[in-house]
Amino acid sequence: xxxxxxxxxxxxxxxxxxxxxxxxxxxxxxxxxxxxxxxxxxxxxxxxxxxxxxxxxxxxxxxxxxxxxxxxxxxxxxxxxxxxxxxxxxxxxxxxxxxxxxxxxxxxxxxxxxxxxxxxxxxxxxxxxxxxxxxxxxxxxxxxxxxxxxxxxxxxxxxxxxxxxxxxxxxxxxxxxxxxxxxxxxxxxxxxxxxxxxxxxxxxxxxxxxxxxxxxxxxxxxxxxxxxxxxxxxxxxxxxxxxxxxxxxxxxxxx
Length: 255
Hints:
The strands form two sheets. Strands 1, 4, 5, 6, 7, 8 and 9 form a seven-stranded antiparallel sheet that branches. The chain is globular, with a radius of gyration of 17 Å. Helix 2 crosses helix 3. It has a domain at about 35-150 and about 220-245. With about 260 residues, it is an alpha+beta fold. Helices cover about 30% and strands about 20% of the residues. The protein has nine helices and nine strands. The longest helix has 17 residues, at about 55-70.
């Protein structure tokens, strides 16, 4: 039996989501960094009940909120386990007394709710102002999402090996380890030449480029005022006006 749960619902990505490419084409891009670390300053990542139910999409929201507030120097937004469970139940219809109702959520549904209604983190309501789809055929788009906005919400297929080895997610060589457990949602919070860094089941996990190329299903970028520091720039030094240069394309909610 699995030690953890997944929760990214199966199905096609929503075609109406705005595209990260439109944003990148509208601004004067900096060079893509070889290494980006938006994770080392976070002392502890919570499980957020993803060992009990398939709320990985909600846990992803909580981890992104926490990480962004740490790096922007704002009061830290930390979603509680209870908030994660209640919000997953409200949005998906999950009843803890009925395991068959634990069916997960589509990332597009979570993104639209984050835009329209928001999620509660540490008693504070948080809403984003943009949610866009990255082209996973061009992983530089995903890297730019991480570099510019702090993170990217990923949907990935997860082989069995990923649950038993949280020290490194790599493409398994043993056919038994390559069996697919299901689909999972995690935030990417950094990268370097050889690895990506994601948060899953309460910890930071390095991921090889080969794993990303094989198992990535979707990736999203978000825009949020929480990423702005007291100097009215992002932790990387970009202005808000720069980030919303393509706001019409970037912030259109999915239908």
